[in-house]
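Deliverable D4.2, example record:
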Amino acid sequence: MSTCETNQSLIYIINMTKRKKKSKKIKQTSSIKKIGYISLLFAPLFIFIYINGKKRKEKLINNSFTTYGTVEKLNKNTMKGKTTRKDVVYFYFVQNDTVFHKIKDLSKGVIAKLRIKNNDCFEMKVVKSDYGIFDINFNLKKDTIIDKTKYKTQMYNTFIHRNIIE
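Output generated by the structure prediction step:
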C-alpha cells in the first residue's frame, strides 16, 4: 500500500465519523412536555399533602377535646427563612396530670395585633389520639391561670424545645 492510498483511507474514515456525529442529533423536548413531566412528578406529593390535611381536620372535628393553652414564651419577628419572618408562640396545656408543651407559628405581626402576652390563656382543641394535632384560638382569651410547676411530667416536642423553654 502506498502512502497516498493510506491517506485517502484515513480521510475517508474521518469523513465517515463526522457524518455519524452529525446524524446523531439530540431531540429537544418542548416546554409543554417538560411542564407535563414535572407535574407528573409532583402531583402525588400534592395529593398526599391534601389527603393528610383533610384527615387531620376530620380528626380535629370528630375526635377532639377542648382544653386551655397557656402562653409561656413569645418570639416576635424571628427568621423563617433567608428573607421571610414569623412570630412563634410557645404554650402548654395539661392533660392527665401531664404538661404538654407545643409550638405555634404565626404570621409576622400577629402577636402584636392580637395583643398576646405571656401567661395568657386561650381555648384550644386537641385530638385525643394524637396531641400533635391541635387548634388554638387566639381570639378566645380566658381569665384562668394554669400553673405548670405542680405537675411532675413535662412533655416537650424536642430537646431543643426544652432548652428554649427552660
